[in-house]
What does this fold into?
Amino acid sequence: MKTNTEPKDTSEKFRAIVKYSNIAFQMIGIIVIGTFLGFWIDKYFQLKFPIFTIVLILLSLFGAIYSVVREFLKK
It folds into this structure.
């Protein structure tokens, strides 16, 4: 008796890979946008100390972590 579980397992693995890749790219995107926005604001105001870059990097990190946790808790 032959069971046809191979395609189902492959499909589930592919969905998991796509899901986690999407989460990783989303996290990277949030952090990159926050970093470039902070850099641009510091450059616009001609600040010697990159306060906006640092603050927006930290905010984007927390935002990315929040987004990942929310995604994992969603059913």
In short: The mean pLDDT is 90. The chain has two helices and no strands.
